[in-house]
Design brief:
alpha/beta; D-Maltodextrin-Binding Protein, domain 2; LysR-type_TF_proteobact-type; disordered N terminus; 3 domains; seven-stranded mixed β-sheet; Arc Repressor Mutant, subunit A
Length: about 300
């Protein structure tokens, strides 16, 4: 299918891309900040312009027809090219004013970055910060963020990463919950306690067993899919959680469980795309964040 040379409303193309990438009209509407009926009309207008159906009707998920798949292949290439142009242009922008998007987990955004961003806001008031809290990895190649704070090293060759340090991760609970446990606080007592999980029970079971505590999936009575919720549940006395020590103690006053148990290390990587590293504003924020995160971790030691 060749769409070049035809007259299109590119808002309709953008709507089509969003529906395919999000998997539904409702998901695309949230991403684009539009209503679902408006998005549906744009898709209908595009189908009318092409005189072809792009989606299979009657299914909840957005399933493409053969024509829709062919269109997606071409317009995705065009969208990637537009993103590349935007990145290069941003990379050559040398002003100290404008907006920087920083992606990190919801817990990192809530408890660590506010202190780290204080220096930036005081010293460079012309730089605005847009925080993107998500536990999914932001796609820097698609310009979902300028800088990302991650716990895994990126593998993409176009990304630049610097390891800032590590979180010490241990078992924590509220003093109220630990006091309510029957008997002395021993490995056997704790192994029978309630735990609060984060996303994947099986992975946590392996990690906690590696620390020297014999637990099973049955220990995890509550599982959260948000780091912020995980901390709040532990602070509310609902069980034991595996948490970074600096946040658990500094922000919530939680008590470390069985200090003689081992610790985990959770690396902190600061990541940016190679094309925007020449942007003075982004480079400034990248270096400032790196130093502020190091100071944050140093204060814990």
């Amino acid at each position: 299918m060749n769409i070049h040379g035809r007259e299109f409303d590119w808002n309709h193309i953008r709507a089509f891309l969003a529906v395919v990438e999000e998997g539904s009209l409702s998901g695309a509407a949230r991403v684009l900040g539009q209503t679902q009926p408006t998005l549906s009309r744009q898709i209908g207008n595009l189908e009318e312009a092409l005189n072809a159906s792009l989606f299979i009707r009657g299914t909840r998920a957005a399933r493409l027809t053969d024509t829709g798949a062919a269109l997606f292949e071409q317009v995705q290439t065009m969208a990637d090219a537009a993103t590349q142009i935007s990145r290069i242009a941003k990379g050559r922008n040398q002003t100290l004013e404008g907006t920087i998007r920083i992606a990190a987990t919801d817990a990192m955004v809530s408890y660590v970055l506010p202190q780290c961003l204080d220096t930036l806001r005081r010293n460079h008031p012309g730089v605005d910060v847009e925080l993107v809290p998500s536990n999914a990895l932001a796609d820097l190649t698609r310009h979902e963020a300028d800088i990302a704070v991650r716990h895994v090293r990126p593998s993409q060759p176009d990304l630049i990463a610097r390891q800032i340090g590590e979180f010490d991760v241990s078992l924590f609970a509220s003093e109220r919950y630990l006091t309510a446990l029957d008997g002395d606080l021993t490995s056997e007592t704790v192994a029978n306690a309630d735990f609060i999980g984060f996303e994947h029970r099986d992975r946590l079971v392996r990690q906690i067993r590696d620390l020297g505590l014999d637990v099973s999936p049955a220990n995890f009575k509550i599982v959260a899919h948000s780091g912020v919720v995980l901390y709040e549940l532990a602070a509310a006395g609902l069980g034991i959680a595996l948490l970074p020590s600096v946040v658990a103690t500094r922000h919530f006053g939680l008590t470390r469980v069985l200090p003689d148990l081992g610790e985990m290390r959770l690396p902190i990587w600061l990541v940016s795309h190679r094309d925007v590293q020449t942007n003075m504003r982004i480079r400034l924020c990248y270096d400032l964040l790196a130093n502020a995160l190091k100071d944050y971790l140093k204060a814990d030691g």
